[in-house]
Specification:
The longest helix has 37 residues, at 24-60. By secondary structure, the chain is mainly alpha-helical. The protein has helices spanning 10-21, 24-60, 85-88, 99-102, 108-115, 121-137, 139-149. Helix 1 (10-21) packs across helix 2 (24-60) and helix 6 (121-137) packs parallel to helix 7 (139-149).
């Protein structure tokens, strides 16, 4: 720990000896005031050099430039579907495995959505919505309903 006390200076040596003979409670406050007294001379020199550095930095700074905002188009999230409400919500088993092999047997609106899913974000949202509807209202729903309605027994043997 650097207290800013030089042992070559007789005044600092006397202060150090006095601090050694005091109790710990007073020694800390005296040590901090000694440090402040010792660094006052250095502080004035540092302030002078800092002001000179600030003036040099201000002279080196380039002039401010005007920031222009680049206007971008919003992403397309709305899709104009060429089908009516009932056709759009007809069942599509887009959650079926090997969808690429059986897509030709799906209804036309399912094929259209599957083919356009990468056109932009809106089509992909519609495609994922069809997949979600296929999961909850398709085969999964039928299996769950059959499990609830059909009698089933658990054997504990």
């Amino acid at each position: 720990m650097n207290l800013g006390i030089s042992l070559t200076n007789p005044r600092s040596l006397i202060i150090l000896i006095a601090l050694l003979h005091l109790k710990c409670g007073n020694a800390r406050t005296l040590a901090s005031t000694t440090k402040v007294l010792a660094t006052n001379a250095f502080a004035t020199e540092a302030m002078k050099s800092n002001s000179a550095n600030k003036q040099q930095q201000q002279q080196k700074m380039p002039p401010l430039t005007v920031v222009t905002h680049i206007v971008r188009k919003k992403r397309e999230t709305e899709v104009d579907m060429p089908y009516d409400f009932h056709t759009m919500h007809m069942p599509c088993d887009l959650d079926a495995p090997n969808r690429a092999h059986i897509i030709f047997y799906f209804p036309n609106h399912c094929i259209w959505v599957a083919n356009n899913r990468y056109a932009h974000e809106g089509f992909f949202r519609v495609y994922k919505l069809y997949q979600l509807e296929a999961h909850f209202f398709g085969q999964y729903y039928e299996r769950l309903k059959r499990y609830e309605i059909d009698p089933h027994f658990f054997e504990y043997s």
